[in-house]
Amino acid sequence: MKIENIENIHDDLGENHVGTSSQTPMKADAFKLSDKEKIESIQEDVRRIMDTLGLDLTDDSLSGTPKRVAKMFVNEIFGGLNPDKKPSASTFDNKYQYGEMLVEKNITVYSTCEHHLLPIVGKAHIAYISNGTVVGLSKMNRIVDYFAKRPQVQERLTIQVVKELQNVLNTEDVACVIDAKHLCVNSRGIRDIESSTVTSEFGGQFKNKETKREFLDYINLDTKF
Length: 225
Hints:
Elements: H1 3-15, H2 35-52, H3 65-77, E1 91-93, E2 101-113, E3 119-129, E4 133-135, H4 137-148, E5 151-152, H5 154-169, E6 174-182, H6 183-186, E7 197-202, H7 209-219
Parallel strand pairs: 2-5
Antiparallel strand pairs: 1-4, 2-3, 3-6, 6-7
Helix pairs in contact: 2-3, 4-5
């Protein structure tokens, strides 16, 4: 296949926000380098990009940018690539015998589009029905945050959150809806600042029309404090 055809395919994938797997694509040697070594390498890469763009890296405002960006990539916005940072999600016996769905809504999502490395910002809404165990409320927020802190496709993020909670709770009865803005759509390309993207993943009982409707009604409640 000609190089220009391959480039066109890559462009089409990126512009249409198509993901290739429900798993984050990782190299086999992804953790060969330490975080310190990754920061040092990325710092030089960012410096080279800025220099190529014609920026004066001797300027006081710009001189520290390469290191700041490198540390941000490794320690913050892409920290979810490191399995050592995966939140432990201890479960507890459902001693109070709560048998209805539990919904955690309006969980803040800060992620990064893997096609243009621009922010994805929105809200996640999660629900599960206990089969005998429950998980701490804050753990659901932490699971969303962990999988969001990596280059992402929103569909994949939604699936990863559901699969992780299914594993933690040992039940298929988990659902997630994410409503988010993609700055790669809002700030470039079509530049539509009003649009947002909604994705969903329903497992177990949430595939039933009535249960799904109940969950969607809950997340549409106008909660004010």
